[in-house]
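Predict the 3D structure for this chain.
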Amino acid sequence: MHLRCCAHIVNLIVSDGLKELGESISTIRNAVRYIQSSLARLQKFKLCAQKEKIDYNGLLVLDVPTRWNSTYLMLNVAIKFQQAFDRFEEEDDIYLLFFHEEDGGSKKVGPPTSIDWENAKVFVKFLQTFYDVTLKFSATLIVTSNIYYHEICEIQSQLTEMWSSAVV
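Done. Predicted structure below.
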Protein backbone atom coordinates (compact mmCIF):
# COMPACT_ATOMS: atom_id res chain seq x y z
CA MET A 1 0.00 0.00 0.00
CA HIS A 2 1.36 3.43 -0.93
CA LEU A 3 0.29 6.63 0.72
CA ARG A 4 0.37 9.01 -2.22
CA CYS A 5 -2.25 11.21 -0.57
CA CYS A 6 0.17 11.71 2.34
CA ALA A 7 2.82 12.96 -0.06
CA HIS A 8 0.21 15.29 -1.54
CA ILE A 9 -0.65 16.67 1.91
CA VAL A 10 3.04 17.26 2.57
CA ASN A 11 3.25 19.09 -0.77
CA LEU A 12 0.35 21.35 0.23
CA ILE A 13 1.98 22.21 3.58
CA VAL A 14 5.29 23.06 1.91
CA SER A 15 3.58 25.13 -0.78
CA ASP A 16 2.11 27.35 1.94
CA GLY A 17 5.56 27.77 3.45
CA LEU A 18 6.98 28.77 0.06
CA LYS A 19 4.45 31.61 -0.13
CA GLU A 20 5.73 33.03 3.17
CA LEU A 21 9.33 33.33 1.96
CA GLY A 22 8.61 33.90 -1.71
CA GLU A 23 10.62 37.09 -2.08
CA SER A 24 13.76 35.71 -0.40
CA ILE A 25 13.53 32.62 -2.58
CA SER A 26 13.05 34.79 -5.69
CA THR A 27 16.18 36.83 -4.95
CA ILE A 28 18.27 33.66 -4.81
CA ARG A 29 16.52 32.18 -7.85
CA ASN A 30 17.26 35.36 -9.85
CA ALA A 31 20.91 35.30 -8.79
CA VAL A 32 21.25 31.66 -9.84
CA ARG A 33 19.44 32.39 -13.10
CA TYR A 34 21.81 35.29 -13.87
CA ILE A 35 24.92 33.20 -13.25
CA GLN A 36 23.65 30.21 -15.20
CA SER A 37 22.60 32.33 -18.18
CA SER A 38 26.09 32.33 -19.71
CA LEU A 39 29.14 30.11 -19.66
CA ALA A 40 31.41 33.12 -18.95
CA ARG A 41 29.39 34.05 -15.86
CA LEU A 42 29.42 30.47 -14.64
CA GLN A 43 33.22 30.30 -15.07
CA LYS A 44 33.61 33.61 -13.23
CA PHE A 45 31.38 32.31 -10.45
CA LYS A 46 33.48 29.14 -10.14
CA LEU A 47 36.57 31.35 -9.75
CA CYS A 48 34.80 33.29 -7.01
CA ALA A 49 34.01 30.00 -5.26
CA GLN A 50 37.67 28.97 -5.52
CA LYS A 51 38.83 32.34 -4.13
CA GLU A 52 36.43 31.90 -1.21
CA LYS A 53 37.82 28.37 -0.69
CA ILE A 54 34.40 26.77 -0.93
CA ASP A 55 34.88 23.03 -0.68
CA TYR A 56 31.87 21.84 -2.66
CA ASN A 57 32.12 20.12 -6.02
CA GLY A 58 28.47 20.47 -7.04
CA LEU A 59 27.05 23.05 -9.40
CA LEU A 60 24.33 25.63 -8.96
CA VAL A 61 20.86 24.26 -9.59
CA LEU A 62 18.01 26.37 -10.95
CA ASP A 63 14.64 25.27 -9.67
CA VAL A 64 11.31 24.79 -11.33
CA PRO A 65 9.17 27.18 -9.24
CA THR A 66 6.12 24.91 -9.34
CA ARG A 67 8.09 21.97 -7.86
CA TRP A 68 9.03 22.71 -4.26
CA ASN A 69 11.52 19.85 -4.08
CA SER A 70 13.57 21.51 -6.84
CA THR A 71 13.39 24.79 -4.89
CA TYR A 72 14.74 22.94 -1.86
CA LEU A 73 17.62 21.53 -3.91
CA MET A 74 18.39 24.97 -5.41
CA LEU A 75 18.45 26.68 -2.00
CA ASN A 76 20.44 23.88 -0.40
CA VAL A 77 23.21 24.24 -2.98
CA ALA A 78 23.06 28.06 -3.22
CA ILE A 79 23.59 28.41 0.54
CA LYS A 80 26.89 26.57 0.22
CA PHE A 81 27.97 29.26 -2.26
CA GLN A 82 26.80 32.31 -0.30
CA GLN A 83 30.30 33.84 -0.04
CA ALA A 84 30.87 33.19 -3.74
CA PHE A 85 27.68 35.11 -4.54
CA ASP A 86 28.93 38.01 -2.40
CA ARG A 87 32.29 38.01 -4.15
CA PHE A 88 30.62 37.73 -7.55
CA GLU A 89 28.57 40.83 -6.73
CA GLU A 90 31.82 42.72 -6.06
CA GLU A 91 33.58 41.46 -9.18
CA ASP A 92 30.83 41.54 -11.83
CA ASP A 93 29.81 45.05 -12.85
CA ILE A 94 26.67 43.96 -14.68
CA TYR A 95 25.30 41.72 -11.90
CA LEU A 96 23.48 44.49 -10.01
CA LEU A 97 22.10 45.97 -13.24
CA PHE A 98 20.41 42.65 -13.96
CA PHE A 99 18.12 43.18 -10.97
CA HIS A 100 16.96 46.56 -12.28
CA GLU A 101 15.63 45.03 -15.48
CA GLU A 102 11.94 44.35 -15.79
CA ASP A 103 10.63 40.83 -15.72
CA GLY A 104 7.04 40.54 -16.90
CA GLY A 105 6.25 44.18 -16.16
CA SER A 106 7.85 44.33 -12.72
CA LYS A 107 11.39 44.83 -11.47
CA LYS A 108 13.31 41.67 -10.59
CA VAL A 109 13.94 41.15 -6.90
CA GLY A 110 17.52 40.79 -5.74
CA PRO A 111 20.35 40.43 -5.29
CA PRO A 112 20.04 38.29 -2.15
CA THR A 113 20.64 40.16 1.09
CA SER A 114 21.91 38.69 4.35
CA ILE A 115 18.27 38.46 5.48
CA ASP A 116 17.40 36.49 2.34
CA TRP A 117 20.26 34.07 3.05
CA GLU A 118 19.18 33.66 6.68
CA ASN A 119 15.59 33.01 5.57
CA ALA A 120 16.86 30.44 3.07
CA LYS A 121 18.92 28.66 5.73
CA VAL A 122 15.93 28.37 8.05
CA PHE A 123 13.71 27.27 5.20
CA VAL A 124 16.16 24.61 4.00
CA LYS A 125 16.23 23.17 7.51
CA PHE A 126 12.43 23.18 7.46
CA LEU A 127 12.26 21.63 3.99
CA GLN A 128 14.81 18.89 4.73
CA THR A 129 12.31 16.98 6.84
CA PHE A 130 9.57 17.32 4.24
CA TYR A 131 11.93 16.34 1.43
CA ASP A 132 13.00 13.17 3.26
CA VAL A 133 9.42 12.29 4.19
CA THR A 134 8.19 12.81 0.63
CA LEU A 135 10.90 10.49 -0.68
CA LYS A 136 9.80 7.83 1.79
CA PHE A 137 6.09 8.28 1.04
CA SER A 138 6.70 8.20 -2.70
CA ALA A 139 8.65 4.95 -2.71
CA THR A 140 7.41 2.59 -5.39
CA LEU A 141 9.22 -0.62 -4.56
CA ILE A 142 8.41 -0.87 -0.87
CA VAL A 143 5.30 -0.73 1.27
CA THR A 144 5.08 2.72 2.87
CA SER A 145 1.98 2.45 5.09
CA ASN A 146 4.00 1.28 8.09
CA ILE A 147 6.16 4.43 8.15
CA TYR A 148 3.33 6.95 7.85
CA TYR A 149 2.68 7.55 11.55
CA HIS A 150 6.35 7.86 12.50
CA GLU A 151 7.06 10.34 9.70
CA ILE A 152 4.01 12.50 10.47
CA CYS A 153 5.13 12.59 14.12
CA GLU A 154 8.59 13.69 12.95
CA ILE A 155 7.03 16.54 10.95
CA GLN A 156 4.97 17.55 13.99
CA SER A 157 8.10 17.52 16.16
CA GLN A 158 10.06 19.63 13.67
CA LEU A 159 7.24 22.17 13.32
CA THR A 160 6.84 22.43 17.09
CA GLU A 161 10.58 22.92 17.55
CA MET A 162 10.77 25.58 14.84
CA TRP A 163 7.70 27.35 16.20
CA SER A 164 9.14 27.35 19.75
CA SER A 165 12.49 28.75 18.63
CA ALA A 166 10.76 31.43 16.49
CA VAL A 167 8.44 32.56 19.28
CA VAL A 168 11.11 32.73 21.98
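The mean pLDDT is 81.
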